[in-house]
Amino acid sequence: MKKVMIMLVALIPVGGFAQQQGDPSALEQLVAKLDNATTVADYEALETQFVTLSAADEQWLPPYYAALCDANIGFLLEKEGERIEPYSDRGLEQLKEARSRIDTATQQKELAEVYVVASLLYRTKVFVNPMTMGRKYGPTAGKYLQLALQLDAGNPRAIYVDAWNKYHTPKAWGGDRELAKELAQKSLALLGQEQQGVQPHWGVRENTALLND
């Protein structure tokens, strides 16, 4: 009996941890921290926590947010291309896991969110070396953005990525800064209709930065 009690006591921390990680409040807390993250260190810490949560929480959101953290790191390191690729690769692996947890026949809006982040991650691969990676990964980034827009034309994050692309593409190659700012305003208006919570709602800071550039 004494041995049984010792075993039960030993199991309490593990069970308690798993329950805490699977608790919706754990995801809410991490997403709230993500909303305020600004540095590479912030996103690295959150990526690790979302990956840990993903092992206990079978929703698509934990690996999706881990991938988003990697995408954000890639954009922060845009001028330091040699540091980006490990984050891009990890992000794509997490995004693959997120996609595997989605019913692609019925959860098209969720799938659109995954494709938006896929577009961002492939864009960070271009940053590694624009001269050599641009031809390889630029079209892939564009393909995933178009897939997201086809699934959910009103997705404000897809519209923001479209705005970013048009803003940062030279005019000779199809860029249009005026249209980009119109799209950013449209994205902001749609974001204003979204509720805060665990579902994707990022984009306000990104659109605001583009409009203030």
Describe the protein's architecture and organization.
- The chain has helices spanning 2-22, 24-35, 40-56, 61-76, 85-100, 108-128, 130-151, 156-168, 177-191, 204-212.
- By secondary structure, it is mostly helical.
- Helix 2 packs antiparallel against helix 3 (40-56).
- The longest helix is centred in the middle third of the chain and has 22 residues, at 130-151.
- The protein is globular.
- Poorly predicted ranges: 1-22
| Oligomerization category of the chains in this entry | single chain
Strand share of the residues?
under 5%
Report the sheet with the most strands, covering strand number, pairing sense and barrel closure.
none
SSE run: HHHHHHHHHH
Structural class: mainly alpha
Which features characterize this protein?
10 helices; 76% helix; 213 residues; mainly alpha
Topology:
Elements: H1 2-22, H2 24-35, H3 40-56, H4 61-76, H5 85-100, H6 108-128, H7 130-151, H8 156-168, H9 177-191, H10 204-212
Helix pairs in contact: 1-3, 2-3, 3-4, 4-5, 4-6, 5-6, 6-7, 8-9, 9-10
